[in-house]
Fold this sequence. Notes:
By secondary structure, the chain is mostly helical. The chain is built from 24 helices and 2 strands. 65% of the residues lie in helices and 1% in strands.
Amino acid sequence: MRFLKLPVLFLFILTLVADGNLWAQNSRDVASRKSSRGKGVPSRAGTNLNSTERRALTNALNLAKNKNYREASVHLYKMSRDPKFRNEHMQIKYILGLMLMEMGFYQAASYQFVEVVRSGNNRYIRDALEKLVIVADQLNDDTLFNYALSRVKLKEYPRRTKDMLMFRVGEYLYRSGQWNKSIQSFRQVPRSSSFYAQAKYMEALAYTEKGDINRALKTQANIVRYQRGTSPTDTNKVAALMAIARLYYQNKNWDKAIEFYRRIPRDSPFWHDALFEMSWALMRASKFRGVLSNFHSLHSPYYEDYYLPESVLLRGIVYLYICQYDEMEKTVSLFDRVYLPVLKNVAEYIKTNKNNTSQYFNDYSIVYENASLEKDREARAKFSMPYVVVQKIRREADVMRIQKHLDRLGAEQRILDSEVPYWKDGAIGQFVRRALNSRLKSTRAKSGRMIRSHMIDVYNELRDLAEQNGFARYEMLNSKREFLKKKVAGRGIIKKSVEEDNDRTYYIQNGFEYWPFRGEYWLDEIGNYYYLGNQSCE
C-alpha cells in the first residue's frame, strides 16, 4: 500500500511563545508602575525666562506635582510649542509625557519621550528611556521597544523595572535567533519578578531551538515545580506541561509525550491542542483505539468552528489502517463537504483582493469583533472571510501580538472619547487623537499584511490536504477492492481488537461512564470517548 505523504506536524515550540492571550499576562501591574512614574518631576523653572513665563512654568510644575494631570497637560502642551520656552522644551516634554502616561495615553506619551531621547543632549534622556520602555511594554509595541533598546544602556537602567527590560530584551533576542544571548537575558530575571515564569519558559524554548533538549526539559520541569500550589489551570504551568509533551514527542518518546498531554486539564484553553497533538503521538505509538477516541471529542459539535482539516484526514488514515472502509468513506467525504468549499472561498477571496491589505484587515475585523460560537451558522455564512479560517488566523502568534497592540490603542481611544470636552476638543486632545490615528493606521496596514500572508498559507495547506484526501480515497477504494476479492474467494476476515480486548466491566471498574455511543452529542460536550470498534483486517 502506498504510504500517504502527510504534512509534517510542527508540534514544537513556537505556538506558545509569549505572543498572545493564551500566555498568562503577568506583566507588572499598572498600579505598581505608577508609583515610580510621578517621582522626580522637576521643580526647577527656567532661568532664561522672564517673570511671567517663569510663573507660568512654575504653575504647570505645581499642577503636575499635585497630580492635576489634566490641567498640567494643557499648560505643558501649549508651552512645548511656544518658542519662548525653547530652552525648557526637553523638561516640558518629559513632564508632559508623564502626565499623559498617568491619564492612560501611552501612545501620545511615547512621542514626548522619543523627542527627548532624540535631542541627544539633555539631563532627561535616561529617565525618558526608562519611561519609553514602560510605555512600549504597556502598548505591546515591538517597534517602540526596539527603538528604546537601541538607545538604552543596560548598566545604567533603574533596578525597579529592570526585570521587565531583561525579559523584553530576551524576547527580542529570541525572535532574532540569538539563542545564547536570549538565554543570558532571561536568566537575569529574578525569581521575585512577575516575569520569572515567562522568562524561564522562553529560556527553555531557546534551549530547544539550540537543540539542547535535556536542558529544555529540565527548565520546563522547574517551571512546573515553581508553580506548584497554583490552580490546575494556571496558564504558565499548563504551558510548561505542553512544552514538555512536545519535547518528548520531538525525541520520539511517544509514551512520555502521551503521559504529559494527558495532564493538561480539560478546562484549560490548551486542552484542544493537547488532544489533537496527543492523537499524533498515539498514532505513532500504534494505539489506534486511543486516536479514534480522541477524534470523537475533536469532531464533536463543541469544536465545529475549529479549523481541523488535518485531524479529519488523520482519522481517515487510522480507519484505513484498521480496514474500517465504511467509516473511512464517511470521513473522506466529511473532508470534501467541509473543507473543499473553504478552499474555494479562500482562493476566490485572495484572487479578488490581491494586495488590498486594508480589505483583509476590515473583513477580518468584522468576523473577529462580531462572531462567536453562540451565533448562528447563517449569520456566519454572510461574512466575506470564512469564519473557520478567521478562527485559525486569530490564534497565530504574530496576529495575537498585533491584535493586543490594536486593543490597547482602542482602549486609549475610548479613554479619549470619555474625556471632558474642553480637554479632548482642545489642542492637547487633538494631538492625542492624531497620535492614535496615525499609529492605528500603520498598525492596521501591518495587520492586514499578516492576515493576507496567513490566508495564503491556509490556501496552500488546504490545497495540499485536499490532494492527500484524494490519495486517501484512492487507497480506500483499492484496499476495499482487495478486501472484496478475498471475501469472494472465501478467505475469512478476522475481527481483531484494535488495542485491548476488554468487556464492559473493565471500563466501569476504571472509572469510565459506559454506554453505547450512537453518534449523538450534547451541544456543549467535549467529554472523553473510548473507541470500542474492531479492526477488520485479515
